[in-house]
């Protein structure tokens, strides 16, 4: 035993020795004099300042880490710039190489998705020119116009699709004049003559579908959607089945021109059902689908029209035009994503430069004579700056006079360092602005003027990164549970006979699944942070004003590695690709900005993060909350790791509880319990922490420990977790009461097997899927069957109290 103790002491001694690190500052010269090294980091102007002296080593380490991070990030940015083309290069390259773009140029047909397409029926079998009554029309001094509403009443018809919103609101329809339909006006006849002729034909035969269809064309040319649709409706009703597709095409064109394109598609599909071999119907429907953005369908109907009429250059040109535009949009979208990725890295690089400038300010304030550990670093400057930054601090100019004199000023190491950082800072800022302007240009091309110039200007603005420190880096309010001593409350759950036996019996069978996952989020507000200000006033947008478009989600940078103690690989793997939102957390997110959409709140969080208006770890917590609400726990873990990296130790329980809750969601109970215990050690008062702790202990079978922590949560917050804590406490207390005297309880060594009996009718037993730790027990007569669940629980006192 003595030898073993000696070995342990020896091992501990070597551990201490090996763990010691030191920095040489004092040296003995050749003359035997002890003096400080000139290039030591501790060569300070005020060596008597003990705190600054002790902090200098940490400052050196921080700067070295910052340089390494910047060097790595710059390599990433350089790789991202390789092969990057401008939007013009992408567009020109596609137009010169893609077959669809080349074929589009062969057809001198401009793409017009509202191109006027009608049929007058003159070419159909069984219809002659005499049917139109275009000759022998009485000449009158005042030209008539066709008023289809006076021909015959038509309030409702099954053939005219009265259920469509455009039909119901036809009196409100508006459209532009369709001068392209003038080609259907007979030669030597103007528009007023056509109207007079059609009106005369309707006088002779007020149910002539040909004249009603021509009247609809007349009103479309005039730009009167309501009268045009009234004529088309009557033409549909009166047209024979073999010709009904013609007025349906006319009516569909009216609705499309009036921007009711979805309703127009319904009519055109019906027209195709009546006349599937009519190429113009397919062309019209293809234009409608292209306008609606359903390009696959539009290509299908363009192909159909070309099969029916190979000479239809309008279809062929439109098809190649759309395919070319789709490829261009895809290429621009990929380029835009590349630029966004570069922007993310540039902004992160810029943030690190800002942090480096703050170190520079600290260095100048400390009045350090030399900082070789700063000036000796290389690899972070842009190659274009090498000639500037290798001048060794000489600034020379030629003075005029009788003799040519070259005057040079020698800068100190501190001045040269400041110039290096400021030049690189300015160049990085300019690159950042250039990339953002490029992204803005591509967005303008892709969105087809859907974003206003005001919003685009807002998109291109670079946040003020010089405000590295703000008052909101620390809590500005009083913590919610500051120095709180938990005492027994006057609530009924403190009574020894609570809940009553009759209440517990009423729960049989237990309907509530108290092991069900309940999302838990410990808000930074509990620590004194006023988070709603971070996403409103501090970013310059009032809560009642909408954040300018576009809205992007608050994506957190993927950490190089996760803290395996809290976020093990199995948790990362389990959350990858998972898309089930924690909707119960939505009120916490929407409380940041009342009446705002979740996507807008996400953009506000992103803006606050980029602008560094508050403590980064708090903003990372808000971003993690957003991702949990939208159902992306993998993204939430990225944000939570960032929060862990920068959160002060006294607030570390905030991200830990979210990590534990996500672990609970994916049934990684041991990890969830470990992380919750860490959070509990930091702050044992938080009701969220006690609720989650109690929930996890119950899952592990520790009823007493679960009850203890749930009561602690309720003593601090009587309505903790919106009543979930009270409901869970009641049910677990009843389960514990029945389990101590229920079937199958016995003491073996240091463990107790607790069984919970859940009564079922015999014929209902089979509907339950028993787990491996469950069995079915019945009386000897086969009645009073129960599904029994058993737990083997240690009777150790510490385990039962959950400590």
Number of E-state strands: 8
CATH class of the domain at 492-740: Mainly Alpha
Sheet with the most strands?
4 strands, antiparallel
Task: Note poorly predicted spans.
Answer: 16-23, 367-423, 448-470, 741-803
TPR repeats: 279-312, 687-720
Transmembrane segments: 9-28
Protein name: Tetratricopeptide repeat protein 17
Pfam family, one: TPR_2
Summarize the structure.
Helix content is 52%, strand content 5%. The chain has 803 residues and is mostly helical. The strands form three sheets. A four-stranded antiparallel sheet has the order 5-6-8-7, with helices on one face. A two-stranded antiparallel ribbon has the order 1-2.
What topology does this entry show?
Layout: H1 2-18, E1 26-28, E2 34-36, H2 50-81, H3 87-97, H4 99-106, H5 165-168, H6 191-204, H7 209-222, H8 225-238, H9 245-257, H10 261-274, H11 279-292, H12 295-308, H13 313-366, H14 372-375, H15 386-389, E3 394-399, E4 405-410, H16 413-447, H17 453-460, H18 501-506, H19 531-534, H20 569-575, H21 586-590, H22 598-611, H23 616-630, H24 633-646, H25 653-665, H26 669-682, H27 687-699, H28 703-716, H29 724-739, E5 746-748, E6 751-759, E7 774-777, E8 786-794, H30 797-801
Antiparallel strand pairs: 1-2, 3-4, 5-6, 6-8, 7-8
């Amino acid at each position: 035993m003595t030898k073993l103790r000696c070995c342990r002491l020896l091992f501990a001694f070597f551990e201490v020795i090996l763990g010691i690190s030191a920095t040489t500052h004092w040296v003995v010269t050749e003359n035997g004099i002890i003096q400080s090294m000139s290039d030591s980091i501790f060569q300070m102007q005020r060596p008597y300042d003990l705190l600054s002296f002790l902090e200098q080593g940490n400052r050196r380490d921080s700067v070295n880490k910052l340089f390494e991070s910047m060097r790595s990030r710059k390599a990433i940015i350089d790789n991202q710039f390789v092969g990057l083309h401008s939007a013009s290069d992408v567009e020109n390259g596609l137009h010169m190489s893609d077959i669809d773009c080349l074929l589009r140029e062969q057809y001198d047909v401009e793409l017009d998705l509202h191109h006027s397409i009608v049929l007058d029926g003159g070419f159909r079998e069984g219809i002659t020119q005499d049917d139109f009554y275009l000759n022998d029309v009485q000449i009158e001094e005042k030209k008539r116009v066709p008023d289809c509403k006076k021909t015959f009443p038509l309030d409702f018809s099954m053939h005219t699709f009265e259920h469509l919103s455009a039909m119901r609101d036809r009196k409100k329809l508006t459209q532009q004049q369709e001068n392209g339909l003038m080609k259907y006006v007979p030669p030597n006849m103007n528009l007023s003559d056509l109207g007079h002729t059609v009106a005369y034909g309707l006088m002779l035969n007020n149910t002539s579908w040909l004249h009603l269809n021509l009247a609809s064309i007349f009103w479309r040319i005039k730009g009167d959607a309501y009268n045009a649709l009234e004529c088309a409706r009557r033409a549909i009703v009166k047209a024979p089945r073999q010709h009904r597709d013609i007025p349906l095409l006319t009516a569909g064109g009216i609705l499309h021109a009036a921007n009711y394109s979805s309703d127009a598609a319904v009519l055109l599909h019906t027209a195709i059902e009546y006349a599937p071999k009519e190429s113009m119907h397919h062309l019209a429907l293809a234009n409608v689908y292209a306008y609606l953005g359903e390009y696959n369908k539009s290509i299908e109907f363009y192909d159909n029209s070309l099969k029916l009429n190979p000479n239809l250059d309008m279809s062929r040109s439109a098809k190649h035009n759309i395919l070319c535009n789709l490829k261009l949009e895809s290429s621009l979208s990929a380029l835009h994503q590349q630029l966004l990725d570069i922007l993310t890295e540039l902004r992160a690089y810029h943030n690190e430069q800002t942090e480096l400038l703050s170190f520079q300010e600290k260095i100048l304030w400390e009045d350090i004579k030399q900082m070789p550990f700063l000036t000796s670093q290389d690899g972070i400057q842009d190659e274009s700056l090498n000639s500037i930054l290798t001048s060794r601090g000489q600034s020379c100019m030629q003075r005029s006079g009788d003799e040519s004199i070259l005057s040079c000023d020698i800068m100190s190491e501190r001045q040269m360092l400041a110039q290096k950082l400021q030049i690189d800072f300015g160049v990085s800022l300019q690159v950042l602005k250039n990339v953002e302007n490029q992204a803005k240009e591509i967005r303008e091309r892709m969105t087809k003027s859907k974003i206003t110039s005001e919003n685009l200007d807002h998109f291109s603005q670079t946040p003020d990164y010089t405000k590295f420190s703000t008052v909101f880096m620390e809590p500005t309010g009083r913590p919610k549970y500051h120095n709180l001593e938990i005492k027994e409350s006057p609530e009924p759950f403190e009574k020894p006979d609570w809940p009553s036996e009759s209440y517990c019996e009423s729960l049989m069978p237990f309907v509530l699944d108290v092991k069900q996952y309940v999302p838990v989020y410990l808000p930074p507000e509990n620590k004194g942070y006023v988070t709603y200000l971070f996403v409103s006033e501090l970013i310059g947008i009032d809560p009642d004003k909408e954040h300018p478009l576009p809205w992007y989600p608050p994506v957190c940078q993927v950490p190089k590695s996760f803290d395996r103690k809290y976020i093990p690989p199995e948790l990362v793997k389990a959350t990858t690709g998972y898309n089930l939102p924690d909707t119960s957390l939505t009120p916490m997110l929407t409380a940041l900005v009342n009446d705002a959409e979740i996507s807008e709140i996400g953009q506000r969080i992103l803006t606050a993060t980029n602008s560094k208006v508050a403590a980064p770890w708090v903003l990372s917590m808000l971003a993690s909350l957003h991702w949990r609400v939208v159902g992306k726990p993998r993204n939430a873990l990225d944000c939570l790791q960032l929060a862990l990296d920068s959160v002060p130790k006294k607030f570390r329980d905030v991200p830990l509880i979210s990590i534990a809750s996500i672990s609970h969601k994916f049934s990684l109970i041991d990890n969830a319990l470990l992380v919750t215990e860490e959070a509990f050690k930091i702050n044992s008062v938080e009701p969220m922490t006690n609720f989650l702790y109690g929930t996890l202990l119950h899952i592990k079978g520790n009823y007493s420990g679960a009850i203890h922590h749930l009561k602690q949560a309720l003593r601090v917050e009587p309505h903790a977790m919106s009543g979930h804590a009270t409901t869970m406490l009641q049910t677990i207390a009843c389960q514990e009461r029945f389990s101590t005297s229920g079937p199958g309880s016995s003491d073996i060594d240091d463990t107790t097997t607790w069984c919970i009996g859940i009564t079922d009718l015999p014929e209902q037993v089979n509907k339950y899927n028993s787990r491996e730790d469950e069995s079915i027990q019945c009386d000897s007569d086969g009645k009073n069957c129960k599904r029994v669940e058993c737990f083997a629980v240690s009777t150790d006192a510490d385990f039962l109290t959950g400590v």
